[in-house]
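As agreed, record minuted below.
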Amino acid sequence: MDYELTSRARALGQELKDAGLMMATAESCTGGWIAQSMTAIAGSSAYFDAGFVTYSNAAKQRMLGVRAETLSQYGAVSRQVVEEMARGALQNSGAQVSVAVSGIAGPDGGSAEKPVGTVWFAWANGERMRSECFQFEGDREAVRYQTVIVALMGMQKNIV
């Protein structure tokens, strides 16, 4: 893990621990990288509860309770889906805060409406939900890396 990722994960973990909060992740395009970043830190069991890697639409439905109608109407890479993913992560874990991501890391899979690099984020706790879309540049690895960084930054900014 690189320095930026390690320092962000460590800082977020300390904030979560200080606040007495447990975190859960609901990840699609990052394939568990957010959870891995948080759990790479010794002592992370004090603030990290669960990670859901729901790459397929079926897994999003089965593990997080994302509605088939939502996926059909808006697509997996949408505000509506990541918000349902974030809620599902809270409902299916012992966490009080969550982050969810779904995007198109590439090199294929993009469209005119949702080009490669499009990633939706949702950060949730029991009281509020914040979602935002980012458009990242670079290859698959770069898009995924940027997604992890923004997910961690967003947890600090919006939830903790």
